[in-house]
Amino acid sequence: MLKNYKRSAEALVATLSRNGIRDPEVLNCLEITPRHLFVDAVLQHKSYENTALPIGQGQTISQPLVVARMTELLRQAGVRKKVLEVGTGSGYQTAVLAQLFDEVYSVERIKALQWQAKRRLHMLDLYNVAMKHGDGWQGWASKGPYDGIIVTAAAAQVPQALLEQLSEGGVMVIPVGEQYQVLTVYQRKGQQFIENKLAEVRFVPLIPGALS
Predict the structure, then answer these.
(1) N or C, which terminus of the chain has less Cβ within 10 Å?
(2) Which residues contact 200 (CB under 8 A, 6 or more apart)?
(3) Average pLDDT, integer, range 131-157
């Protein structure tokens, strides 16, 4: 267990603020969420650096700035209640969402990662998260529609199934592309989806299917 992490967390939040994160609730959430619990022991000394870290299975825990930015985009769009996360991973982004939104539904294709994430969330007494082992490309239609969808892996093309699970006025934040990835926001207006491309990013790919 990393000792005296609070000072490191404060320094991280100061970095996020300098890099344009303005939502005080998002900043506070990243300050109080113990990121070191979501990485392997050998990497805990890097927990509060603004960098992505490996979590096994070819996956990573996202850079804190990206976590904060994607979360802030949902809140700026007025999302407060029901959110779908595609790609549970370590559970770190999930933990942030669980503290800022009423209901969180999270889909993960790798069973071992899902199990570890669930254990970590329970350690933090976060119980407003429902988890599913499945294909993130398909989302979780039976629990929709969602006010917000956040995708934590890069899709070569925008998954149509996810767009269709947005509620009217709902927004999806997703990195799109293969070699060149762009963080993009889609907002539903009837059967149309308004696209807003934001910034170049780097994520692991969103792979169809599910692994046991």
Answers:
(1) C
(2) 180, 181, 182, 183
(3) 95
